[in-house]
Amino acid sequence: MTVRSPKDIVVAIIGAGTMGAGIAQVAATSGDLHGGLVELPAGELLGRSAGATAAALARTAGRPVILIDRTLDDATASAIAVARSADCPADALDTAVGLLQAAGLQVSPLA
């Protein structure tokens, strides 16, 4: 049996109901950006910040990125901030915010 590294796994979420939102929250906050990337329906990437800016990661990834800011404790955080790269459409940010809000988080988009 071959065991793949979590960094090799891509998470796809169809729908933004309770289950989809929970999967998005866990995937997006499960470690550094490479280990916690979620691809949104239109192809943008949602991930947890590992210290780089959304703009820098968008250049590396070759597509728009939305980053979840780090929290002191992901398990108990009730509010988070998100930032998008300049090339990220507003509707993608709305999708990411909706997923995270459906998971019970208060979300503050940063300018």
Write up this protein:
This protein has a single domain, classed as Transcription Regulator spoIIAA. It is α/β, with parallel strands linked by helices. Strand 3, helix 2 and strand 4 form a beta-alpha-beta unit. The protein starts with 10 loop residues before the first strand and ends with a strand. It has a six-stranded mixed beta sheet with strand order 1-2-3-4-5-6, with helices on both faces. It contains three helices and six strands. The model is unreliable at 1-6 (pLDDT under 50). The longest helix has 13 residues, at 90-102. The protein has helices at 18-28, 54-61, 90-102, and strands at residues 11-12, 38-39, 45-48, 65-68, 79-84, 106-109.
Reading the helices and strands in chain order gives EHEEHEEHE
Low-confidence stretches: 1-6
Helix content: 25-40%
Q: Largest sheet, if any?
A: 6 strands, mixed
Number of helices: 3
Largest sheet: spatial strand order = 1-2-3-4-5-6
Distance between the termini: 46 Å
Question: How many β-strands, per DSSP?
Answer: 6
Q: What is the name of the CATH class?
A: Alpha Beta
Binned strand content: 15-25%
The overall average pLDDT, rounded, is 77
Structural class: alpha/beta
CATH structural fold name? Transcription Regulator spoIIAA
Which descriptors apply to this entry?
alpha/beta; globular; disordered N terminus; Transcription Regulator spoIIAA; six-stranded mixed sheet; 111 residues
Q: What is this structure, in a nutshell?
A:
The chain is of the alpha/beta class. The protein has helices at residues 18-28, 54-61, 90-102; strands at residues 11-12, 38-39, 45-48, 65-68, 79-84, 106-109.
